[in-house]
């Protein structure tokens, strides 16, 4: 769209950066899925090779299966996305139900105390941890979670009425994404303290809180030792599984994570090649025209699918979620800045 309105010399570079960012996003979500599978396997005592290589193996197998679903056509991709969406909604509801269930001793030991004003107020202020702890580090990790809002525009060639569907779908995606992320952040921030030991023996039997450190002291728990030594394994600041542990049924949340990561990975695996195919058709850059060829009645970019698969596989081998997230954030921020600049340019010049 940018190429047709402002010229291919503007749309081409944006398309190149944006398609590459989508390919990296496929890798990010696949690694996210692989890390959860790895952790579950290790909890059950199953190790393929080691902690890092297990992520690489699971990720490689997963992205290969997703490629076959993509090659089967858009109909299969759409049906798979509907299934993922239903699972995700069940997990979403399961989480909110869990936040209102009164916590037992086992959940209190990991820092979950139900909705409390003092917990919410404490979690409103920042508390960055570690040598790389900063706002921009957290932004780099979180930002890729908001990039799926462009999925509808990325497959505009397959939409019946793009001019209506793209603005409506994108604005609804922005609204529901913002609302759901805010609800999760606010609810978990009002229920879970930052640091907890997970040890049920740290429940205080008396009323004295002398020498006790941390907000949990007000709830009758003494997590002072792990707070002072910075060795707490549970709590909002330490535990990546906190949403599952707060929810009504832990494994529903695991299923939700699977659905979210696989759905996003599949979406990006479809969108990146389609953007790249359109870029190749304009023949702006040499040596990439090979990837413009489409197959079947829907002009599926099979060659571009394989290219995206190879790029995603290369970044999956990094096997470190936060590292990949930082790279992706830069590519997407460049893309969005250029897209916004193009929209501004088209508006200010009254481009038809």
- Strand residue percentage: under 5%
CA-based gyration radius: 23 Å
Outline type? elongated
Specify the biggest β-sheet. Answer: none
Mean pLDDT: 86
Instruction: Please provide the ordered H/E string of secondary-structure elements.
Output: HHHHHHHHHHHHHH
- The DSSP helix count reads 14
- Structural class computed from helices and strand pairing: mainly alpha
The N- to C-terminal Cα distance equals 12 Å
Helix residue percentage: 55-70%
Low-confidence stretches: none
Strands, count:
0
Keywords: Membrane, Transmembrane, Transmembrane helix
Main location: membrane
Protein name: Amino acid permease/ SLC12A domain-containing protein
Membrane topology: Multi-pass membrane protein
Pick out its properties.
14 helices, 352 residues, mainly alpha, transmembrane helix, Amino acid permease/ SLC12A domain-containing protein, elongated
